[in-house]
Write a structure and sequence with these properties.
Layout lengths: L3 H15 L23 H4 L2 E4 L4 E3 L3 E5 L3 E3 L5 E3 L4 E4 L4 E4 L8 E5 L6 E11 L3 E4 L2 E3 L5 E5 L3 E13 L2 E5 L4 E4 L2 E5 L2 E9 L2 E5 L2 E9 L2 E4 L5 E9 L2 E4 L3 E9 L2 E4 L4 E9 L2 E4 L3 E9 L2 E3 L13
Parallel strand pairs: 1-3, 2-5, 3-6, 4-7, 5-8, 6-9, 7-9, 8-12, 9-13, 12-14, 13-15, 13-16, 14-17, 15-17, 16-18, 17-19, 18-20, 19-21, 20-22, 21-23, 22-24, 23-25, 24-26, 25-27, 26-28
Antiparallel strand pairs: 10-11
């Protein structure tokens, strides 16, 4: 029987299904185009310029990186002639087969003048110069590993240099930092910078580590008159020589200097918590020595030593 209730339900259903307020156009379901990338590229995050051959000159500010090992037969491998440059060796090696007497550089900072704000990280500079006899350095390769004596605000980190006729890592004293680096064999200086941290230089004729401040460093000079560590302030450093000075510092804290010849283990104005020794020379020469141990001498006051 069709009752008023049935009629009422039919009206409600018809209203729900067919009422115009519930019918709307949905638009096209076709995508407007191909999907676009949503992530940034490496170039957008950090624009970097690759270096795949040498010699190479950096003439513009920016970030650069090696893509392969580089070898040169003459001159400088990389020359930086711009300010505000970051060079990532990217774990690769720069080497040379030239005559080191030409004094080529693995990396030269400021070929056309002083540069500022330079950072070099993460790689190797390999050269073939060896110490064939005490004080006689010869072989093929580079005169300098990294040379930037007139550069300002420079930092070298995580770089290993070997076999240079003159200097391994040579930076100017104007706000320069060398950290976590190694130098093996340099005919004059191993590492030169205002601040040297956590670094090692061995087999360097004149001076292994030369700095205003040296922290946690090790330096060895194998020749008579050489210096292992030379610093205004040396903290937690080890220096040794054969007939030279192991550690020479205005203030030496917790350092160990030793000489295996007739030189001196340590020469310092103020030595605190230091140990020094010499086979046939003086162990420690200091004006003030606190909590120090010296063999064979105990805190002898000697003449002041000038910079090498």
């Amino acid at each position: 029987m069709y009752t008023r209730i049935h009629f009422f339900i039919a009206v409600i259903v018809s209203g729900v299904v067919f009422h115009p307020s519930f019918v709307r156009a949905q638009g096209s379901l076709t995508p407007p185009g191909a999907p676009a990338p949503t992530m940034k590229t490496l170039a957008q995050i950090e624009a970097r310029t690759p270096i795949a051959s040498a010699p190479f000159t950096i003439a513009s500010s920016g970030s650069y990186y090696l893509t392969t090992n580089l070898t040169v037969s003459a001159g400088n491998a990389i020359t930086i002639n711009a300010n505000n440059v970051r060079l990532d060796l990217n774990g690769f090696t720069i080497s040379s087969t030239e005559n080191p007497a030409t004094l080529g550089c693995g990396i030269l900072l400021g070929g056309n003048g002083a540069v500022t704000n330079i950072t070099i990280v993460n790689g190797f500079i390999q050269s073939g110069v060896t110490n064939n006899n005490v004080g006689i350095f010869s072989g093929s390769g580079l005169g300098y590993g990294i040379s930037g004596a007139f550069a300002i605000c420079t930092r070298v980190s995580g770089v290993s240099v070997s076999g240079c006729l003159v200097n391994g890592i040579e930076l100017g004293v104007g706000n320069s930092v060398v950290e976590s680096c190694t130098v093996n064999t340099a005919g004059t200086y191993g590492i030169v910078a205002q601040s040297v941290f956590d670094s090692t230089a061995v087999n360097c004729e004149t001076c292994a580590v030369y700095a205003a401040t040296a922290n946690n460093c090790s330096g060895m000079s194998p020749t008579a008159g050489g210096i292992g560590i030379y610093a205004f302030i040396a903290n937690n450093c080890v220096g040794n020589t054969t007939g030279g000075i192991g550690v020479s510092a205005s203030t030496a804290n917790n350092c160990y200097g030793y000489d295996t010849g007739d030189g001196e283990g340590m020469v310092s104005e103020i030595a605190i918590g230091c140990i020094s020794s010499s086979i046939s020379g003086k162990g420690l020469s200091a004006n003030i020595a606190n909590s120090c141990y010296s063999y064979p001498d105990d805190a002898n006051i000697a003449n002041k030593y000038n910079m090498p």
